[in-house]
Amino acid sequence: MLADSDTDSETDVLTDSDTDALVDADSELETDCDSEIEALTDAFSEFETDCDSDTDALSEADSELETDCDSEIEALTDADSEFETDCDSDTDAISDADSELETDCDPETDVLNDADSLNDAELDVESDSLAEMKLEAEFEIDSTVEIIAEIEALKA
What we know:
Structural class: mainly alpha
Number of helices: 1
Strand content: under 5%
């Protein structure tokens, strides 16, 4: 052991037992440090493994999400395309029905117009006939009035 310089005037000298104790302490310290280093290395390795696992899991989840999104986008695109196709078909059907209705209505409209024209012509003929009959009736009335006037004049 070391002698206390305040109490003893002898020079400090390490004995073999002191040296052995120091070597043992140094060896124990080195062993403790090695154990700590090994524990830290193991912990770091475990941490890296965990990180790699987490990274792999995140990568798989990202890939799965991307696949799901791609599927959803494809489904929406297909649905949109199908909707447009259906709308185009409906628009074509409505257009065809409208054309067919116009085609069906055109002859009927022509018949009605012809009938209207015929009615107008018949009315014109009847109107002319009535006007002529009126003139004839007025002429006959005038003739009858003249004959009556002549008869009256002869009676007088």
